[in-house]
Amino acid sequence: RPPGVAEAERVAEDSPALRSLRELEAAADLAREASARAWIPELILGAGYKGVTTYDAAAIGTGSRADGFTLMIGLSLPIFDSGSGLVARDEARVAGARASLDLGLLSARASERGLVARVRGLLVALDAFESDRANAADLVRIATAAYEGGEASLLELLDAHRAVADDALLAIELAFDARLAAIELQRLRGGE
């Protein structure tokens, strides 16, 4: 088995992309809850100091001034708009975020299953190929003995050596593909 393949076979669905989608869903849900509270009237309180000067129109230059503290209480009543449009918009955002998360989960699971199957298939092929490579050494030994005995030509001996070299190259390619698939699987699962 190539190193790094066994470590990649752990099951995990906590990739950074899926964590991001989960956070977007939570944010949309909080925004929906805030919109649902929009119908609650807003209470406005105010306090201050105010001075008022009044003038008598009949007597020029005469007037009075009154100073004092004021207190204000205001209440905005949403008679025509209860915030239902905001609630509907935010509910649609929540539904969209949930759909994106579900799609991301399905996609990640499908990709993960495909990569796991690819890694396992490559490992099975590599194991089968490694067991057959022992026969290749016998082929070279037989071809060498036949050449030394005069029963085979130099081309047949070279062909046997070429077949062994091709088998070694194919084994390296299978191991490389298995490692590459394991790395892709690790990246999909949020590994480093």
**Which structural category fits the helices and strands?**
alpha+beta
Which geometry do the CA atoms define? rod-shaped
The largest sheet is: 2 strands, antiparallel
Helix fraction bin: 55-70%
Beta content? 5-15%
Q: List the secondary-structure elements in sequence, H or E.
A: HEEHH
Give Rg in angstroms. 40 Å
Number of helices: 3
Q: Could you report the average pLDDT, rounded to the nearest whole number? A: 80
Main sheet strand line-up: 1-2
List unreliable stretches of 5+ residues. Answer: 7-12
How many β-strand stretches? 2
Distance separating the two termini: 20 Å
Features of the shown structure:
two-stranded antiparallel ribbon, rod-shaped, alpha+beta, 2 strands, 15% strand, 192 residues
